[in-house]
Specification:
Structural class: alpha+beta
Number of helices: 14
Largest sheet: 6 strands, antiparallel
Distance between the termini: 48 Å
Helix content: 25-40%
Strand order of the largest sheet: 15-16-18-17-19-22
Shape: elongated
Radius of gyration: 34 Å
Length: 580
């Protein structure tokens, strides 16, 4: 990922223009490796994300909602103690490295000025966020502790002397007066080799950006100094883009000239979009590992059970054969003698064709006939039981497949609801009670909210508990309900009794996107008034029946969902009256 030194420099310029002289009003740590400082600046609240994630380390202003853990971490409490109310005085980058220092001014208990510094080190699995007392030069705390046993050179523990991360033995492209790139341009005319040499010579060049610089130097060979300086200047006036690269894509601050590039207003909005699905999926897989295991294990068990039930049902098809044999033995009882092990008798059900019937030597002729009648009755009784069990097992499979889909489409904040549901349905042990014998109740999460182009409010349930609450309690009977046809997915409510066709299409796009058919090209989506949607007695969470529906066909895309999310930001004061 090209969150290299160049991108870091561009991000620092963007954050400086928005955050300098702002005050820290709130501090939270939604994930073990990520902290959010809410900074009040220029009459706006800016949630500044500081991430030390081994794969997605970065700093940016984020608009992605996060849920705080019920109990704050020690690092969160330390940051709150020292930084709440502090003034952000400085944002600077170390050379062209992926190290950013945030300078804060605050006062200690005695009222004396206390300069503090947060060091954000974006270094893969060595990434860290470090709070430093600048006066003493000592570490107050870090988001990741690194003891002497892990790193002899650099101990990152509370109370330890702060030692900066080792610098790269490379040139800073912004302070290089030797113009080494001119020599490299002459020596290496090949694009890939020149890019590799730029990476080896200068700090902070990801391969994608090194290739871009190589292209600009070749294109501006008549005046390479101008091409070099112009390209470096994009760090101050960036062009936030997501660039396709085969099956993958990368983000950048450079103006890539290709028709498939996705452009964005700011670098922070760019990163929100880029990491939204990728980082969310990884977090859900990590945090919801137990839930995935439980659901998939029960899916496997029920699929095996269904297979055995089908085999049993197939065996019951032989029941009539046992009845016929019993009747033939009864009819021709005078031809059967004790001690016989088989007999051929004419089958009056099959044009008098001979049928071979096995006999037990230990049983009398009438007892052999009764044995076949008993087998027939047993299988006949089994048919009703097995048929019922097959129906129940299929319902269970449908429910578990729905849960699996919800987990695959979930965001981290949705996992708690799914966990509660699994506990309610008996798949997980119930939550432990406290000393008073009470179970701590978690506040149920709210459905996602979007706004159509005409500012009509649209709600999307992200799990079964949200779906039930949204459809059966929140929605009004004249609202419109949508769901991807014959596939697992979310309940979607249009909070309007007479929505436009465009609004219904946008709501249908949401229903298709938050369903098992997210990647399909043409998804049928049913829509109907909420009053025609009902939940059968005893039905599983999220299951409803409906009638009188109509169907729309839509193609879900990330771009369409992003647009609806942007509508949300601009529609906070322009939504329809939910009571209509």
């Amino acid at each position: 990922m090209p969150f290299d030194g160049l991108f870091t420099r561009a991000m620092v310029h963007e954050l400086e223009s928005q955050l300098i002289s702002g005050r820290v009003t709130k501090i939270s740590q939604p994930f073990p490796n990520e902290v959010i400082l809410t900074i009040r600046a220029q009459r706006h609240n800016y949630p500044l994300l500081l991430s030390a994630h081994p794969s997605y380390a970065r700093l940016q202003i984020t608009t992605v909602p996060y849920n705080n853990p019920p109990v704050p971490t020690n690092f969160t409490m330390t940051l709150r103690k020292y930084l709440e109310g502090a003034l952000l005085t400085e944002i600077k980058q170390r050379d062209n490295d992926r190290v950013v220092y945030l300078g804060f001014s605050t006062r200690n208990e005695l009222g004396d000025l206390l300069p503090l510094q947060l060091s954000i080190e974006i270094m893969g699995r060595y990434s860290n966020v470090i709070l430093i007392d600048q006066t003493a030069g000592k570490i107050i705390d870090t988001i990741k502790h690194v003891g002497p046993g892990q790193n002899r050179y650099r101990t990152l523990l509370p109370g330890a002397q702060y030692l900066a991360a080792p610098k790269q033995d490379k040139l800073n492209p912004f302070t290089d007066h030797t113009e080494k790139y001119l020599q490299l341009l002459q020596q290496y005319p090949n694009r890939e080799i020149l890019a590799a040499q730029l990476q080896q010579t200068y700090q902070g060049f990801a391969r994608e950006h090194a290739l871009y610089f190589a292209d600009q130097l070749h294109a501006g060979a008549a005046n390479p100094q101008q091409a070099w300086g112009k390209t470096l200047a994009y760090t101050e006036k960036p062009h936030p883009v997501i660039v396709p690269a085969g099956k993958k894509k990368f983000f950048s601050f450079l103006p890539y000239a290709t028709s498939k590039v996705q452009q964005h207003d700011t670098l922070s909005k760019l990163l929100d979009l880029y990491y939204r699905d990728k980082a969310t999926t990884d977090r859900v897989q990590q945090q919801g590992a137990q839930l995935f295991h439980v659901v998939r294990l029960n899916l496997q068990k029920n699929r095996k059970k269904l297979k055995k039930l089908q085999q049993t049902l197939d065996a019951t098809q032989k029941a009539d054969q046992f009845r016929i044999k019993g009747e033939l033995l009864t009819t021709y009882l005078n031809r059967v003698s004790r001690g016989m092990d088989r007999i051929e008798l004419p089958n009056f059900y099959d044009n008098e064709q001979k049928m071979t019937i096995s006999l037990s030597k230990q049983l009398s002729p009438s007892q052999n006939a009764q044995k076949y009648f008993k087998k027939y009755q047993k299988l006949k009784n089994a048919v009703a039981y097995v048929t019922t069990q097959i129906a129940l097992t299929k319902k269970e499979l449908t429910y578990l497949e729905e849960l699996e889909t919800q987990l695959e489409l979930a965001e981290p904040q949705d996992l708690q609801d799914i966990k509660v549901e699994l506990q309610q349905q008996g798949y997980l042990k119930a939550q432990k009670r406290n000393k008073n014998g009470k179970v701590r109740k978690n506040k149920p999460s709210s459905p996602a909210v979007f706004y159509a182009s005409d500012h009509t409010k649209i709600s999307v349930g992200k799990n079964n508990l949200q779906n039930d609450r949204l459809t059966l309690k929140i929605a009004h009977k004249n609202d419109f309900w949508l769901h991807a046809k014959n596939i697992h997915g979310s309940h979607v409510i249009v909070h309007n009794s007479s929505p436009s066709t465009q609004t219904l299409l946008e709501a249908a796009t949401l229903a298709a996107y938050y369903s098992k058919s997210r990647s399909a090209a043409n998804v049928p989506v049913d829509y109907v008034a909420v009053r025609k949607v009902h939940k059968p007695n005893g039905a599983k969470p999220g299951f409803v029946i409906y009638e009188g529906q109509q169907t729309l066909f839509v193609t879900p895309t990330v771009e369409a969902i992003t647009k609806l999310q942007q509508n949300k930001e601009s529609s906070s004061d322009a939504v329809n009256d939910p009571k209509h």
